[in-house]
Amino acid sequence: MMPATKSTLDYFAWMVILALAALFIYAGAAKLGDPLEFADTIAAFAILPAALVNLLALALPMFELGCGPLLLVPRTRRIGALAVALISVVFFSALLSALLRGLVLDCGCFGSGPPSRPRMWLELGLDAMVFSGALFLYCRLLRRDGNVRPAL
Amino acid sequence: MSWASLIATPHSESPSRANRISRRVALDFGGVFLVALISLAAGLSINRFSARPLPLVYKTPEQRFDAELTSLVTASPLALPPAPTVGLPEFRAAVQEKSALIFDARPAQFFTEGHVPGALNLARDNFAYDYRQLSSILKAANDKPIMVYCSGGVCHDSRLVANALLTLGFTNVSVFTGGWEAWSAAGLPVSRGPVR
Question: Which residue, A147, A151, A139, is CA-closest to B17?
Fold first, then answer.
């Protein structure tokens, strides 16, 4: 049997894994410091009822922090990739909805910052990139897992 | 067999590759749901032992400010530090010269029935709302002395409101201890009408 050689796509997948894991660990840690401020940020989107705002403010940083290790551990990588893809869809939808409603706010993605529409567009782009990366990773892992044990 | 091992090990008995992938995707969604539940449990646990825990239901900054304002005037009067006091002559001079902001700490109903001319209603029982309504006047008054009265005698509303204002950063605040009883008993002018 020929030893498996790593392709360019494998290296790219590794870069995506490391970048997403670092991004989500950083984003989760940045939100942990001031949950009240993060709750205010979530409420500013005017999407969720008051009963869910604080629950999300408490759970989301932990979820993001959890995504990092899930992506780094081979056995849980697919779940991590799917979690990142799903949460980036949620972020993208919330930001797009706020932009379409003319709101100017701080997305709270990486801690607090000044409300700014250009920054919101930038973060919308980042969410799209994160989603693309996570989806690429998930599909690749799913396809590989269907054949042999994952190389990634 | 755990869900993690199901994901990691292909099923030899699976009828087709498509079914196998569907099953894996379903399991992955289940895994994400489990991660979300664990995250919520972890977040709630950390919050439980936090120095400043979040309440379960969100309150806007305005609601939180109102709650803080209300807490300022619900302390036991016995626990309050004594606020400076003024007597009738000094209070009367301040009213006539309009040299101080005069606040009536009684409920709006009593204020409507009769109050000191030029007084504004900063009711103890509606402090948060009244304070927000009067915040522009309070800001504009800057260093002007503030005098607070209530019914007089044993009423504590003026002391509670005066101490709340002191806590909020106003420095020149005093209580007219004689209150409405002393003012009306002296036969001094009276204004009537609702809060504007």
Answer: A147
